[in-house]
Amino acid sequence: MANTRPLDDSDHARISAAVTAAELHSSGEIVTILADRSDGYTDVALAWAAATGLVALMALAIAPDFYMGLYDHLLGGWGHEWTPRTIFALAALVAGLKFAGMMVLQMWQPLRMLLVLPAIRTRRVHAAAIRAFRIGAERRTAGRTGVLIYLSMRERRAEIVADAAIATRVAPEVWGEAMAAMLAEVSEGRVADGMIAAVDRVGAILAPHFPRSDQDINELPDRLIEV
C-alpha cells in the first residue's frame, strides 16, 4: 500500500455523507470502522523470539568453540575449566540474549507485521471484524439489516460483515466488488475515497433487496469509527 495520511475532519464528513446518501435508498444500516491494526500479535512475536533462541542453542552445539572463546574474551582472556554448569550457563545466556534481542527488534511495528504470516493476518482481521460487528451492528436494527465495513491498515485487509436478514439474501461473494473498489483506492493512499467507494457499492447492493420505507429511521450512526 502507498503511504497514507491521517484522516482529517473533512474526510470524516465525506464518509458520513456517503453513508447517509447510501441509506437514503435502503433500509440497510451501514457502519464503517477504520482500525490501525486488528491485533498486537504478541504470540507471534514470542514464537519468533523462541525460535531465535532455539537457533542460537543449535549454533552453540554446532560451534561451541566460538562461543566459549567469546565468553573467555569477555572475561579478559583468562582461560578456565569448562564444567557442565558453566556450559549450561553459557547456553542459557546465549539463548536468553537472542530471545530478548528478537523481542526488542519486534517492538518496531513494521518488522513485527512483516513477520506475521498472511494467513494469520487474514484470520485476525476477520476475527476483529466479527467482534466489532457484534458490538456495533449485529441485532441493533429492527430488521436485522446492519452491515459493517471494516478496514485494518497495518494488516492491509478489509472485511464486510452483514446481519442475519441481509445474509439470507446476499451471498458473501457479492461483497467482492465493494471490497475491490475500496482496496484499489486504499492501495494508492486514498483511505477516505476507499471507504466511500465501498459504502457506495454496499448501498447499491442493498437497495434492491431492502428498499427504504417511509417509516424507516436511522438506527445506527453514520460517522466513521476509528480504533
From TrEMBL:
The keyword Membrane applies. Keywords: Membrane, Transmembrane, Transmembrane helix. The chain crosses the membrane at residues 45-67, 87-105. InterPro entries: TPM_dom. Residues 141-204 form the TPM domain. Pfam families: TPM_phosphatase. This is TPM domain-containing protein. It comes from Novosphingobium colocasiae.
